[in-house]
């Protein structure tokens, strides 16, 4: 299995079966928080139903997953510890780190010793982190878990996560700005798509990996965050395969691409850290690939590296900008 496949599936296969924030996610967090003023306690309920109390807005924060790290950075909070720093810098460079945080190990197995040495006042994790790891982390500092993904409400879930982290860090005003940037980008992008005569156009977004010389393809099907944002732009998600309940992700191979409509605009993302481009390089001489109508028509585009497909509103703002500029240029 390639490094990239391990990186991507580490998040994608994580179970999202934990309870979502009761009621309306961050609404409960806002209702139960006493205040975000420095020196006064903040009480929050996380995605698992656990309640934590902070002495004030957290400033020394560790992130065990890239989506929570991205939200911290977008909120103007420099994390003191980040899981797989190099991986974040490669896969979420659209929302770049502005400091030099300690590397706390892998996303699935953070180093307890490293985290403890940082003396954080808050650890951000997801509902995909093992219960044993969470239990041990709680011995170091309060742990706030978010729901990584929910195929029934991806955009709302991403927004809820941002709001919850903002409440914990006292950055609600900045959260409002981040959310507005996303909604403005969607509105402007939808208008640009319509002006270009592309409203209702079929778009299929995927990523790919090479394993033992074979290209595996992951469709971002209905219920994926990318798929939902694509549809918000007035475009049609051309995938008909069924994705998983958490991430809306499916699997297929090059033959599976023959099921896409002939007029599909095929968009994909990969990363230079993995070397060869699965589509432009490895499939370049594949007869099935080259015979696809959208390939023959040149309607295949690689989006810029570093837009994290499982991120928050900030990453999705970058995705919107990339899709609109690619389709309307």
TrEMBL record:
**Is this entry keyworded rRNA-binding?**
no
User: Which InterPro entries does the UniProt entry name for this protein?
Assistant: ABC_transptr_periplasmic_BD (IPR002491), Bact_iron-sidero_bind (IPR051313), TAT_signal (IPR006311)
Q: Where is the Fe/B12 periplasmic-binding domain?
A: 60-329
UniProt KW Transport keyword: yes
Taken from the record, one Pfam family name reads Peripla_BP_2
Taxonomic superkingdom? Bacteria
Q: Give UniProt keywords alphabetically.
A: Signal, Transport
GO biological process terms held by the UniProt record: iron coordination entity transport
Query: What GO cellular-component annotations does this UniProt entry give?
Result: outer membrane-bounded periplasmic space
**What is the official name of this protein in its record?**
ABC transporter substrate-binding protein
Q: Where in the cell is it found?
A: Cell envelope
User: Quick one: where is this thing mainly located?
Assistant: other
What the record says about family reads: Belongs to the bacterial solute-binding protein 8 family.
